Q: What sequence folds into this?
């Protein structure tokens, strides 16, 4: 009886000790995403990368613009925010500390813009630079 109690006691202590030894400290990153007018943006793809993380974790922001990365191992993270029509934003060195720590972020995304120049030539337009001649149809063809 005492021998079996002692064996169960040793096994129980070994089990509790192994849980403590193999426990991984985790934290989380939470935040919200807004545009330049302060409106929350849903549907943003957010990726988290870190050397302490196996692979890449990805979440999508909710209707209210909030996002949440639960159970991240302790370390430094790089977050990338992407959505068509907005500039891609990269936040480096986001640090997740010891267990139960939460990193709160508010990200401001700007609308992506690009200058596009379009040149339209009439159908019969011909330009010869080497002879400096221009062959244009009569001026009435340019009228709409």
A:
């Amino acid at each position: 009886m005492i021998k079996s109690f002692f064996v169960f006691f040793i096994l129980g202590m070994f089990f509790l000790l192994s849980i403590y030894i193999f426990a991984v400290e985790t934290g989380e990153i939470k935040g919200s995403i807004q545009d330049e007018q302060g409106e929350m943006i849903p549907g943003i793809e957010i990726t988290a990368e870190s050397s302490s993380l196996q692979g890449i974790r990805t979440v999508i922001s909710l209707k209210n613009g909030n996002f949440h990365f639960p159970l991240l191992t302790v370390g430094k993270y790089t977050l990338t925010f992407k959505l068509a029509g907005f500039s891609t934003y990269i936040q480096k060195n986001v640090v997740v500390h010891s267990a139960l720590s939460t990193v709160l972020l508010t990200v401001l995304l700007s609308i992506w813009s690009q200058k596009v120049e379009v040149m339209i030539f009439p159908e019969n337009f011909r330009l010869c630079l080497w002879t400096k001649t221009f062959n244009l149809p009569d001026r009435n063809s340019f009228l709409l």
